[in-house]
Amino acid sequence: MLPAESFAGNGCGGASWYALRSKTASGERMNPAILTAAHRSLAFGTKVKVTNRNNGRTVVVRINDRGPFIRGRVLDLSRAAAQNIGMVSSGTAKVCYQVIS
Asked: The organism sits in which domain of life (predicted)?
């Protein structure tokens, strides 16, 4: 049996956040005030529920970019998404995520 991390729709690992205003891999402009995230392989537009493993807070984000490109990280969140789950000050957090649509 394979671990949950091997299925792209669900997993756990590190997350970071970013607040650039450049274009994302999907072609839209990155807006740090919108609940979006980057994932290496999930389809653009996929909605993902992200849970901060340290405090249990959750947020639903839409995948609109590719990344992260740092080993051990599974998502790069917009600043708004990171703020919702309480990880802005730390910069990173251990999260689990689940595709919801």
From this structure: Bacteria
DSSP-assigned letter for residue 39: -
Tell which residue, 38, 32, 44, has the closest CA to residue 97.
Answer: 38
| Alpha-carbon span 55 to 51, nearest angstrom | 8
According to DSSP, the residues that pair with 52 across neighbouring strands are: 95
pLDDT digits (tens, 9 = 90+) for 45-96: 999 999 999 999 999 999 999 999 999 999 999 999 999 999 999 999 999 9
Phi, psi angle pair for 24, to nearest 5°: -90, 170
Is 35 in contact with 78 (CB distance < 8 Å)? Answer: yes
**Contact yes or no for 98/52 (Cβ under 8 A):** no
pTM score, two decimals? 0.88
Which three-class secondary structure state does DSSP give residue 81?
helix
